[in-house]
Amino acid sequence: MTSGHVHSYETLGALDGPGLRLVIFLQGCPLRCCYCHNPDTWETAAGQPTSVADISQRIRRFMPYFGRRGGVTLSGGEPLLQAAFCLEILRECQRLGVHSAIDTGGGVWNDVCRQATDLADIVILDIKAANAELWQAVTGRDAFSTLLQLIADFRASQRPVWVRQVVAKGLNDSPEAMRDLAALVAGLNIERMELLPYHEMGRSKWDKLGLDYAANHLQPPTPDLLADLQKVLAALRGC
Ligand code: SF4
């Protein structure tokens, strides 16, 4: 059985997919988001080497708590960086009859990633920015075309997705940014769409790792601003 590197677990999380979930944070990420709240997941070779059998045992321990809607979410880091490992965990979820989700930033995409996302019940797509220039500014990587390919495939397959975007003042707190986002995700089979407020809770981890926090230029949006942007986005999407 395949094994991989796990950063950590969150038991009975309620934010990353429907119901109560076992969230498995996988190690490694190809992006370097300026506001990342998990920079300790970046290094691919770190984390705890873990077998699918170990994870299966953990899933089975928490199955009684999942209820009708809950299940397992693979997050990170970027879980699809370990796509073969994801695929095996998702097969195990399917075998156990457990609902599964993958939370991806869309920074990596290939045939194995496609197989893994095909198998997940829900994909949570965290869109860092909705145009190439801003995406590179947020992620530190010139790979917007990878996200575009992923979106094109999801549009063709009509697989269910939850779409998320972090909103920060000084980054994407404008109607224009909402217009770009609505255009980017048009035609996807979106079950849920969320704008999440930027927060600074990751700053202490950057400090601990000896890294200079890269989002000093950003500020959290006020609740009113976020609500206004949500209305703009809903109107643009015709909701
Ligand atoms: S994709 Fe997630 S884990 Fe990776 S750098 Fe961005 S915020 Fe951090």
From TrEMBL:
GO terms for molecular function: 4 iron, 4 sulfur cluster binding; [formate-C-acetyltransferase]-activating enzyme activity; lyase activity; metal ion binding. InterPro entries: Aldolase_TIM (IPR013785), Organic_radical-activating (IPR034457), PFL1_activating (IPR012838), Radical_activat_CS (IPR001989), rSAM (IPR007197), rSAM_sf (IPR058240). SUPFAM superfamilies: Radical SAM enzymes. It comes from the Bacteria. It catalyses: glycyl-[formate C-acetyltransferase] + reduced [flavodoxin] + S-adenosyl-L-methionine = glycin-2-yl radical-[formate C-acetyltransferase] + semiquinone [flavodoxin] + 5'-deoxyadenosine + L-methionine + H(+). Its EC number is 1.97.1.4. It is found in: Cytoplasm. Residues 15-239 form the Radical SAM core domain. The keyword Mitochondrion does not apply. This is Pyruvate formate-lyase-activating enzyme. The lineage of its organism: Bacteria, Pseudomonadati, Lentisphaerota, Oligosphaeria, Oligosphaerales.
